[in-house]
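Observation: inputs received (chain + zinc ion).
Thought: call the complex predictor directly.
Action: predict_structure
Action Input:
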Amino acid sequence: MMRKILGLLILLSASCVGAASVQEQMEQNPAVKAAVEELVLANHILYDQNAVDGYGHISVRNPVNPNTFFLSRSVSPPVVKVEDIMEFDMNGNALNGDTRVAYGERFIHSGILKDRPDINSVIHGHASPVLPYGLTGTTLKPVYHMSSFLGEGAPIFEIRNVAHPNPDTDMFISSPDLGNALSKSMGLQYFVLMRGHGYATGADSIKKSVFRAIYAIQNASIQAEAMKMGQVQYLTPGEAAAAQATIEKTIGRPWQLWSERVKNKQ
Ligand SMILES: [Zn+2]
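Observation:
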């Protein structure tokens, strides 16, 4: 009996979380407030560091409800404000009766966050340095320690393989099915290329997902330059694992710099 009552109470509190607006949740819970404020800052940093442009987005899982996530309404990253943040379920449905226009590609976030409990923040963008890898099938691999999380190389999502019945799509991840297929392509890695479109990446925190987006893009540029000069020496899987363990302990350092840059511009 007690168990039933307890279960009912948990259900009730979960539905209350879903029913409260993002603003109300921020007022009630410091962890939500911190996550939403960091998400807004991350939008500005990603634009300032050329990881996104007028398009692109970043999400974060709700710290008090793992089955929902926060993502801006459909505006460009550098102009995102706290009031723009919406809450979604893991099928990409907006919660709290929020009827504002959402990003058409929110399913990238719901697909990956649903499949990957180890990932709490997802980024999608169209940064041009990564595009040639998705187009040619040349594997994007870690050429230096900063992007060691790329491991043995980024997988490439081919939308033609999953779009039914017509393989000629508009290239957008515009449905839960396409978001789930993209997530399957990513597998257990942290970065996936999208042929003719862009990339998606993720990590257990906003800071780390931003770090990974920025350094994967830098890796793409360095790798392309190196390939013109000759045979490229990539990090071995062992080097990549060791370097990742070391470098990802220090991400607070560039985050401070990136934050101050955008704060000084405001
Ligand atoms: Zn896109």
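Thought: report the result.
Final Answer: The first strand starts at residue 57 and ends at 62. The longest helix spans residues 206-229.
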